[in-house]
Design a protein that fits this description.
Layout (H helix, E strand, L loop, with lengths): L1 H21 L8 E6 L4 E7 L4 E7 L3 H4 L7 H17 L6 E3 L8 H11 L5
Parallel strand pairs: 1-4
Antiparallel strand pairs: 1-2, 2-3
Helix pairs in contact: 3-4
């Protein structure tokens, strides 16, 4: 069974590497990168030209820790809304979506849709 898990990780890493050749964040349109682990959700807006994270949201933050978020679609929606709000404060409206090798459904789709409805444009 552990062999299957390493294969899943290797497959996702390969997909993400292929995706990253096509998706890059520039100053005018940074990259919204998402990552999901077994317990947490991470989202960052990154300017790849400078190599700097402009905005980030994690379920491990003290602000979100009190709400006991789990890595599910409800929590992904909250993280999507929060990343969009923080991006607005930094005057970021346009982003490129980097799904991180994950399929665009479930948690990934929920986070993306919540960010869109909160004002980010992909």
């Amino acid at each position: 069974m552990s062999n299957k898990l390493t294969n899943k990780k290797a497959i996702r890493a390969r997909l993400h590497a292929r995706l990253r050749t096509k998706v890059t964040g520039v100053g005018t349109r940074p990259r919204l990168s998402v990552n999901f682990t077994g317990q947490h959700i991470y989202a960052q807006i990154i300017d790849d030209e400078v190599g700097k994270t402009l905005v980030s949201v994690m379920t491990t933050e003290k602000e979100l820790e009190s709400s006991k978020l789990r890595p599910n679609t409800k929590s992904a929606e909250q993280v999507g809304k929060l990343i969009a709000e923080r991006a607005k404060t930094k005057n970021i409206k346009l982003v490129v979506f980097d799904r991180g090798g994950f399929r665009y459904h479930g948690k990934v789709k929920a986070l993306a849709e919540a960010a869109r409805t909160s004002g980010l444009q992909f």
